[in-house]
Amino acid sequence: MDRGIASSSRDGSQIASPDGLAFKNINNPIKKQTICVKQDDDPCHFLRLLYECLVAGGLAGLVVEAALYPIDTIKTRVQVARDGGKIIWKGLYSGLGGNLAGVLPASALFFGVYEPTKQKLLKVLPEKFSAVAHLAAGALGGAVSSIVRVPTEVVKQRMQTGQFASAPDAVRLIIAKEGFGGMYAGFGSFLLRDLPFDALQFCVYEQLRIGYKLAARRDLNDPENAMLGAVAGAVTGVLTTPLDVIKTRLMVQGAGNQYKGVSDCLKTILREEGSSALWKGMGPRVLWIGIGGSIFFGVLEKTKQILSDQSSQKIHKA
After folding, report:
1. Does 2 map to a domain?
2. pTM listed for this prediction
3. Is residue 30 one of the residues assigned to a domain?
4. What is the number of other CB atoms lying within 10 angstroms of the CB of residue 254?
């Protein structure tokens, strides 16, 4: 694990990176750095880390959703279509505004939990268990952010499938017909998909970064971060496609309740459409998450670097 690596400043002093992973200049990537305990326990240090994570995560999530929303819409419509139903190619940006309003706080909340949790676990777990820290932090971040992500996803996917004309109408009518619980339709299936997805994606990405950095004996540049993000996203996207199909079916069914739950949805799909239906939309999903992973992690790491540099400059001036 490379959390002990530190960068060297011009005056020869060593500066620990806020995320324990991003560095400017590495002389010896194997050498461990003793980090000041007082800094770790300093509330200001934690708040600064939290602020950087909230800003970087929120911005990265916003950029990805805005750039790749049409691909996500196509994926949703493919997964919902049954018996050779036609895919509508119009209105590929339906629900974008409402989705962005939810993605910003959801992404910020995820990283506000993920990064501090990851750093705490990396300090208490043996280095050989770094993957466990990444898995646990990713799952916890996904669980906490689901409070915002699930209603955002419900509104988004129902607008993508043409059920509502605007996000405010969607929220109002869903609550009127299904109660407040309708905003959390498919919550269980969402967690079933997103907890393993978040845990796997971030674990794969973090482990790839560690191995790449040690092999290259230097810090990763922006294109390399983006490339590793694309690989992590594509691999995880393939593995979790069946879970995504079930989640989508449950979220868009509305008050009709065609499916009674995750188990019933799975059995019905297998009985009526065959196992191949569980892989519907895999192409656009992998394309969306692969490209999205590239953009997301590229923007994330760059934003974290900029914010970290600004914080370091303020500390040196003080």
Report:
1. no
2. 0.76
3. no
4. 17
Range of 125's domain?
43-292
CB 111 within 8 A of CB 184: no
Residue type, 79: Q
Mean pLDDT over residues 192-215, rounded?
Answer: 93
Phi, psi of 7 (to 5 degrees): -90, 160
User: Which CATH number fits the domain that encloses residue 195?
Assistant: 1.50.40.10
Q: 230-243, pLDDT tens digit by residue?
A: 999 999 999 999 99
Determine phi and psi for 14, rounding to 5 degrees: -105, 140
In a domain, 34, yes or no: no
Can you give the pLDDT at residue 42? 65
Q: Give the C-alpha separation, 244 to 242, whole Å.
A: 5
pLDDT tens digit sequence for 106-137: 999 999 999 999 999 999 999 889 999 999 99
Q: What is the 3-state secondary structure (H, E, C) of 287-308?
A: HHHHHHHHHHHHHHHHHHHHHH
The count of other CB atoms within 10 Å of the CB of residue 74 is: 21
